[in-house]
């Protein structure tokens, strides 16, 4: 499951996740992209924290089900004021505190310049560990120069960033395989 925490249509964050999805697909894996701009979630309610399936909003139940059903999760976010977006924070608040238990979690972000592009990854690492997930060592931070924006849909063009997407896909595959080995 790849989660785009950008409320913008045709966002850089979504384009980064598409590149990771293609890398996973080329390795024979299926994926779902949950774009919070296209499929927003309502403001989290405390009554859902212990069991999001008690939510009276189907989107919350569907999102929780997608996270629970995923072998791995990738969180993508734009840099908003030096951290991750409120949209992704709210989505995480719609989950249980252990929603990422025994799951590898990739963390990627986009910022307006290279100095700001990695800040959200640092903050989300702590959140992922708090939610019992295993943050991947490979994290990706992009800036606007890494993309071709002349196309109808923004596309990642920087070859180093594309290679990091492939490395992250390999790392996720390795961790899922380790989890499968432990379960057998």
Characterization of this structure:
With 184 residues, the chain is α/β, with parallel strands linked by helices. Helices cover 39% and strands 18% of the residues. The chain has 5 helices and 7 strands, in the order βαβαβαβαβββα. The strands form 2 sheets. Strands 2-1-3-4-5 form a 5-stranded parallel sheet, sandwiched between helices. Strands 6-7 form a two-stranded antiparallel sheet. Helix 3 (86-93) links the parallel strand 3 (73-78) and strand 4 (104-111). It is globular and about 45 Å long. The model has no long low-confidence stretch (mean pLDDT 94).
Give the SSE layout.
Blueprint: E1 2-4, H1 12-26, E2 33-35, H2 58-69, E3 73-78, H3 86-93, E4 104-111, H4 119-130, E5 134-143, E6 147-148, E7 155-156, H5 159-183
Parallel strand pairs: 1-2, 1-3, 3-4, 4-5
Antiparallel strand pairs: 6-7
Question: What best-fitting shape do the alpha-carbon axes yield?
Answer: globular
The residue-averaged pLDDT reads 94
Tell me the major beta sheet: 5 strands, parallel
Helix content: 25-40%
Task: Give short descriptive properties of this protein.
39% helix; single chain; 5 helices; alpha/beta; two-stranded antiparallel sheet; 184 residues; 18% strand
Provide a short characterization of the protein structure.
With 184 residues, this protein is an alpha/beta fold. It contains five helices and seven strands; from the N terminus they run βαβαβαβαβββα.
